[in-house]
Automatic annotation (TrEMBL):
Residues 14-189 form the Glucose-6-phosphate dehydrogenase NAD-binding domain. Its EC number is 1.1.1.49. This is Glucose-6-phosphate 1-dehydrogenase. It comes from Thiothrix eikelboomii. Gene3D superfamilies: Dihydrodipicolinate Reductase, domain 2, NAD(P)-binding Rossmann-like Domain. It catalyses: D-glucose 6-phosphate + NADP(+) = 6-phospho-D-glucono-1,5-lactone + NADPH + H(+).
Length: 491
């Protein structure tokens, strides 16, 4: 089975920060794969733009090296590779210098009919100045789309300031706040699972669901991101955007149609229904942790960030509750951390056990049904159900997973598309369904800010945890108080 490839309209994509890690590791490989599959039209162009003083030929050489590093050898068809490389151009520009925009204007005005995509793969401090610069030279046209990456603010106040800066130049329908988690096939399949099947929606409420766990664990430490990470922490880096967005898609009401604003309206309702976690509730409903050292070659969090007094968390667990009719009484447990047992992202919907068991005398107890939605590794869905253990040796119950791993369902030659492939093409199409709206970002910060403020007011340090573990003991105790336990972190 093969996926249908629908070409997009001709476009010019300008990558501000075109020589940076995001461009080389994610954006250019994603664009190459779309080009190799025939989705990018012949006249489309890609322009790298940065302060690095180099020319187009050296940029092409850098891009070619990045593709060889980040794209599998069997995907690097030589003809497709050279065709893609020829699309690339480069401009050396300092966006803070108003006189430096002339070459960009000339480049884009060569093809005024093209859709224009401005991808800001730069620090958030440059988002506003770049948007203003584009407006001042007449490049913020009706055919232009502005793409911004996280962090979308450091708190509510800065997020509101950023939204004002962007909306003063671009219409909200031209702003694409990207969250690569929303481009993953499994996340999109979550919507198909709920709204394209009659099986689950009648069960998708507090009457049938006991609790939900959303886990994003990483096996590596902060590495070279230490200077950024120590100002953000796990709650800003992962919870405020990725995990909260997954919670919204899981908990939202069915939109009246599969439309960008209809879907985002429903996500916003979930964000506004999240019960505030404030004051002493923060001590019982949240846990912070920092990974410890493990030998001379495995430094602690404090050593990696070079700040022995840091109270920034590398792990966070939160018990979230939604105050509405559908979810009243159903806790949503969120956790994310670095240097944990495995690299894994999973949503687990744990259903309530039957009201009465007719198998009470059996040696093997029953287990709750669990719908597991795996984002990484091995994207797919799994439903655990109870069945009779085969054989003539009596009647014993056994938990059996009904497994749908997407790669297996497609065959050995099928490749799972990277999230950026889908999201970049959606920007060109003008489809905002998988992108965050400004009021969503602000609503998420309204819920997150009081948690951070209570942590800071408490003066408590994050709890240490061993690398390769499941995280702090306090997170296990938080679940145990509710009579529940975390699912295993495993590949």
């Amino acid at each position: 089975m093969s996926s249908m490839v629908i070409p997009v309209d001709p476009f010019d994509l300008v990558i501000f920060g075109g020589t940076g890690d995001l461009a080389m590791r994610k954006l250019l490989p994603a664009l190459f794969r779309r080009d190799a599959d025939g989705q990018i039209p012949a006249t489309a162009r890609i322009l790298g733009l940065a302060r690095t003083d180099q020319d187009t030929e050296s940029f092409k050489a850098e891009a070619r090296a990045a593709l060889h590093k980040h794209v599998a050898v069997d995907e690097l068809d030589s003809i497709a590779l050279e065709r893609f490389i020829e699309r690339l151009s480069y401009l050396h520009i300092d966006v803070t210098d108003a006189r430096a925009w002339g070459e960009l204007v000339s480049y884009l005005n060569e093809r005024p009919e093209h859709i224009r995509v401005y991808y800001l793969a730069v620090g958030p401090a440059l988002f506003g100045p770049i948007a203003q610069g584009l407006a001042q030279v007449g490049l913020a046209t009706t055919k232009a789309r502005l793409v911004v990456e996280k962090p979308l603010g450091h708190d509510l106040a800065s997020a509101m300031t950023l939204n004002r800066e962007l909306s003063s130049v671009f219409n909200e329908k031209s702003i694409y706040r990207i969250d690569h988690y929303l481009g993953k096939e499994t996340v999109q399949n979550l919507m198909a699972l709920r709204f394209a099947n009659a099986l689950f929606e009648p069960l998708w409420n507090a009457n049938r669901i006991d609790h939900v766990q959303i886990t994003a664990s990483e096996s590596l430490g902060v590495g070279t991101r230490g200077s950024y990470y120590d100002t953000a922490g796990a709650i800003r880096d992962m919870v405020q955007n990725h995990l909260v967005q997954l919670l919204c898609l899981l908990a939202m009401e069915p939109p009246y149609k599969f439309d960008a604003d209809a879907l985002r309206d429903e996500k916003l309702k979930v964000l506004r229904s999240l019960r505030p976690i404030t004051g002493r509730n923060v001590l019982t409903n949240t846990v912070r942790g920092q990974y410890l050292a493990h030998g001379p070659d495995a430094p602690s969090y404090l050593q990696e960030v070079g700040n022995p007094d840091s109270k920034t968390e590398s792990y966070v667990a939160i018990k979230a509750e939604i105050d509405n009719w559908r979810w009243s009484g159903v806790p949503f447990y969120l956790r994310t951390g670095k240097k944990l047992r495995a690299q894994m992202t999973e949503i687990a919907v744990v259903f309530k056990e039957p009201a009465h068991s007719v198998f009470g005398d059996l040696e093997t107890p029953s287990m709750p049904n669990v719908l597991s939605i795996r984002l990484q590794p091995d994207e797919g869905l799994q439903l655990v159900i109870m069945t009779k253990d085969p054989g003539p040796g009596g009647f014993r119950l056994r938990a059996i997973p009904l497994d749908m791993t997407f790669a297996e369902g497609r065959g050995s030659n099928w490749r799972m598309p990277d999230a950026y492939e889908r999201l970049l093409m959606d920007v060109v199409r003008g489809n905002q369904t998988l992108f965050m709206r400004g009021d969503e970002v602000e609503a998420a910060w309204r819920w997150i800010d009081p948690i951070i403020e209570a942590w800071e007011a408490s003066g408590l340090r994050p709890e240490g945890y061993d690398p390769g573990s499941r995280g702090p003991i306090a997170a296990v105790e938080m679940m145990a108080r509710d009579g529940r336990r975390w699912r295993e972190i495993e590949v």
